[in-house]
Amino acid sequence: MNAHDPSVSSHSDELSFYEKRKGVFPRKVDGNFRRFKWAVMAFCLIVYWGTPWIRWDRGPWAPHQAVLIDLAHRRFYMFQIEIWPHEFYFVAGLLIMAGIGLFLITSAVGRAWCGYACPQTVWTDLFQHVDRLIDGDRNAQIKLQNAPWTASKVARRTFKWGVYLGISFFTGGAWIFYFADAPTLQREFWTGTADSVAYATTGLLTFTTFWLGGFMREQVCVYMCPWPRIQTAMLDEKSLTVTYKHWRGEPRGSVKAAVKAASPLGDCIDCLQCVAVCPTGIDIREGPQIGCITCALCVDACDKAMAQVGRPRGLIDYCTLEDANREQHGEEDAPLLKTIFRPRTLIYFGVWASIGAALLFMLGTRTRLDLSVAKDRNPEFVMLSDGSVRNGFTLKLRNMEGRPRPVTIALDGLPQGAIYTDEMEADAARSALAVEVPADTTRRIRVYAVQPRGVARPADFAFVLKATDKQGGGDTSQTTFTTAQGNGE
Amino acid sequence: MADMNKRIDEPTGVETVGHEWDGIEELNNPLPRWWLWTFYACIAFAVGYVVVYPAIPGLHSATAGTLGWTSRGDLAKEMSAADASHAAVRAAIAATPIEQLATQPNLQRAAIDGGRAAFKVNCVQCHGAGAAGAKGYPNLNDDDLLWGGDIATIHQTLQDGVRQPNDDATRMSQMPAFGRDGILTAAQVQDVVSHVGVISGQEKPSKAATRGAVVFAANCAVCHGGGGEGNRLVGAPKLTDGIWLYGGDRAALTETVTNARYGVMPAWGARLDPVTVKMLATYVHSLGGGEKAAPAVVVPQAAAK
To answer: Is A3 within 8 Å of B14 when comparing Cβ atoms?
Structure first.
């Protein structure tokens, strides 16, 4: 679009392998997008800090935290949903939905994730507010940056970095509450009795927040993050991007210059407000670029400047590439809804929604009490003195409810079969066993099934699990009965 | 050569490096300086790592590192932590008479699981991973335990072993080599084998078996019982069932009667600690052939406590 002139490029004759970072000191700005960004930031921070403290009553056998990733016990609680490790596909499904959701958002409204909701953006924004509160607005910050290291500057810097560190500590510290009971962990944390993992995690995340949010900032987006590169492939001519409408703005020049100019100038008054407010320090007038996170703060700044000189707003605005071409040819923009609801976004939405519906379906139909049977393979069967045959089985009784459940285990299809466990003696064998499965536990039981000599020996039979409480329910697991060939019958 | 292709890329104003692949060129954008500092920091870290951890390999070992860290040391720490975590349960098992273990399900469970682990180390070589035995090594899953199947008896068999000359309480008995030592003639051996074939349900009654019954009553019944029902006091196997330690066909039986058998098992009390032996006994008892303790044995002990 607005091509560089090679002759005035920043290239010096001496080749530089490494580039010193240019400071970014974004100016305070107000406007619709800034207010929206405030709201998103507040929402994200409240969700992040508040979620672990929501309580949820699950009865005496399960934790009372609404959202809890209990790694030690391999359980994931989310309000009334409890996920076991074998149900991890729910988490995988949610992650896939998050990924496709990101594609959907990106193709519909461009880099909205980058501009508003990405943690790097949210915390960078927060730290830049701290900068403005302590050091003053853009000019004061630049002045202080360039000032020599006097005692006063050292004091101000120390104070500011202390505030950074405080925010970082509460950011890193909040993370651990997702993995243990929050009030308990907080008490333990301050009394020094928490697990060392809690302190290490807090320390690490404090450091990364301090470093990435306080100092690296836009360097993360420009150099480290793969997502801007991936998004390049996600965007098309119908994606919303923050666009400088050069056909309307060029040639740029101040109001005074416009009076003197021979030919009429464009709307851009070259006030550099768009550059001053940019949190990644780019000049949007150079066209779409990887450094633009589409936070639209330059839109707010430009609208304000246009209002001051009495020109229509929207010289910098959200605009698709297609609409940019239309506007250049004096045509009307396509309707916004038609831009957003197009085959690409509808397909993304379809995929996203089907995964969500499938997950909900599985959630509604999943079983909370089940039985799995593993037959002994060594030995496959045992001949007893009286000619009866015994097979050994390992039964896993899985109670996924948050309370103990009484169940019976019985045989189906093994004539005159009797069962006993490895904690019982053989003469106590009977046709069904009553056991209790503790709350939220898989109980493993060794069961021996014996069949006397001379009765029909079907190859297949089943263990039947039945809950004997009011709720009922159960499971059946098919298995086989092995005998020596030609024996018994 | 590549330098000749260097040029300024028009849209960005950045010089290219001069390489070109199918029309795709690489821009010579400078790296950020913090990247360079990160690189230096990594080098500094690596130097520190080499100093404090084992790093440079020699012929037989690597440099030790100033921290003295070894993976074996880590393992030793984990092992002693595991031992410490078992200490309470082991003490409880040690303090509980083996006949009483079943009254404490948690201890019984721990003993069975501990026994399973010890079995894999000490017993599978002869009895097999599934304790199903092999020729000459008893199957521990069935209900035919030569010396008795209640838990105290199993424990004593393990403790003192079978036919161990240095253990006074060992399980001791010896079947005579009827054929080799000339006690029976070869024909008498065949007759008695026929008789055993009949009482174990493998052969039909025959004249040889009838002759063998007389030989059996005179020579074998003292240990194996008049009907071949066996005697656990001397470890004499039951001969009427389908379970044979050395094989039940004519050839195997002939060999057994002619040359006798002399199976042995180490006295584990001399090799393992008492708790492990207890856990092994509990595990073997749990394999399915475990029997109830004879009431006469349990009651006086319970009363004495």
So the answer is: no
Q: pLDDT tens digit string along A384-423?
A: 988 899 999 999 999 998 899 999 999 999 999 999 999 8
Q: Is A9 exposed, middle or buried (0-12, 13-18, 19+ CB in 10 A)?
A: middle
- Contact between B195 and B239 under an 8 Å Cβ cutoff? The reply is no
Domain with A417, as residue range(s), is 369-480
Residues A376 and A415 occupy one common structural domain: yes
More confident residue, B295 or B149: B149
Same domain, A230 and A250: no
The domain defined by B93-169+265-295 carries CATH number 1.10.760.10: yes
Nearest Cβ partner for A11 among B15, B32, B130: B15
Q: Where are the domains of chain B?
A: 2-52, 93-169+265-295, 186-259
Domain count, chain A: 3
* Residue A377 maps to a domain: yes
pLDDT in tens, B181-191: 999 999 999 99
**Which chain B residues are closer than 8 Å to A376 by Cβ?**
130
B38 touching chain A per CB within 8 A: no
Tokens of B182: 């000339």
Tell me the C-alpha distance between A290 and A388, whole Å: 77
- What's the mean pLDDT when you consider all of chain A? 90
A57-69 pLDDT, tens digit per residue, is: 988 888 999 999 9
Residue A24 resides in a domain: yes
- Please check whether residue A13 lies inside any domain of the structure: no
- The answer to whether the Cβ–Cβ distance between A216 and B34 falls below 8 Å is yes
Residue B300 forms contact with A (CB below 8 Å): no
B149-164 exposure pattern, b = at least 16 Cβ within 10 A, e = fewer: bbbbbbbbbbbbbbbb
Tell the residue number behind the tokens 């000749």, with chain if given: B4
Last residue of a domain, one of A287, A307, A334: A334
- Is residue A160 located within the same domain as residue A46? yes
Amino acid at B127: H
Query: Hey, what amino acid is at A164?
Result: Y
Identify the contact set of chain A against chain B, taking CB-CB distances under 8 A. Answer: 3-6, 9-11, 15-21, 216, 219, 223, 376-379, 382-387, 390, 392, 422-423, 425-427, 446, 448
How far does A417 lie from chain B, in Å, by closest CA?
15
**Domain check: are A116 and A151 in the same one?**
yes
* Displacement of CA A357 from its chain's centroid (Å): 19
Q: In this complex, which of B10, B130, B241 lies closest to A376 when CB atoms are compared? A: B130
| pTM more than 0.90 | no
Distance from CA of B288 to the nearest CA of A (A): 6
What gap in Å lies between CA A320 and CA A76, rounded to an integer? 42
Q: Under CATH, which architecture does the B186-259 domain have?
A: Orthogonal Bundle (1.10)
* pLDDT tens for each residue of A36-53: 999 999 999 999 999 999
Answer yes or no: do A422 and B132 touch at CB < 8 A: no
